[in-house]
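Our example pasted here:


***
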Amino acid sequence: MRDLSRVGIRNIRIAKSGLVDGFDSVEACAKKLIGIQAQYQQFGEISLFHRVSSGVTLDGLNRVYADGGLIKLWGQRTTVHLYGVDEWESLNAIYAPRRTWVRKHCEELGVDLDDVLGKIDRLARTKRYVGKDEIAALLGEQAKN
């Protein structure tokens, strides 16, 4: 039987987060944790370093990015979010249709957000990297607002 005291629950959470035994790979870590979020990219990568038992090297991490094993997204205030491909598909299916401030703002600007997101998705599936300039070009003059 598990210890369900405050201390016991804390220890379970620490173990499940990969800080005791670690995950087998960067991809397994991102999948099990449903992504890594950090204020800056380096701190997200440090989080992976502490949670992957086989060790994470810069070359290995760059290979994972290049092979498309992780999706790296930049959020507001320069936060970085690292997701496994399957987890991103699921998260996107849940959150994309919601009426968020982004959707409302795009409507005010006359931008068809679903059309822009579709174009970004098509680019990302062929290029593996879509830069800010390419996204701004899709938004046209509205990117300046």
Summary: Residues 110 and 142 are 9 Å apart (CA to CA). The chain has eight helices and three strands. Helices lie at 6-16, 26-32, 41-51, 58-66, 85-95, 101-109, 113-127, 132-139. The radius of gyration is 18 Å.
